[in-house]
Design goal:
Helix content: 10-25%
Number of helices: 2
Largest sheet: 3 strands, antiparallel
Strand content: 15-25%
Order of helices and strands: HEEHE
Number of strands: 3
Distance between the termini: 33 Å
Low-confidence stretches: none
């Protein structure tokens, strides 16, 4: 089964994007995306906002179980 954005959100997770070119990690704003799309379909049209590279990886991110916080974004 292929996971959709709705599956990810139902699990209480967030969608992160990492650029292979500049190593930037940011969270995507899920409210702007179609929840019925698969994660692979979502990644097909995305580019890095910093360097413009299309070499990005989507990651399902969960809160840290020890402290309940989301991992920090990084540039």
């Amino acid at each position: 089964m292929t996971r959709t954005l709705a599956d990810l959100l139902d699990a209480g997770h967030r969608l992160g994007v990492t650029c292979a070119a500049c190593h930037r990690f940011r969270y995507l704003r899920e409210t702007r995306l179609d929840e019925t799309l698969t994660l692979s379909a979502l990644s097909a049209g995305l580019r890095c906002a910093t360097c413009g590279s299309n070499e990005i990886t989507l990651t399902e991110v969960a809160r840290d179980p020890a402290n309940g916080k989301w991992p920090a974004e990084r540039s």
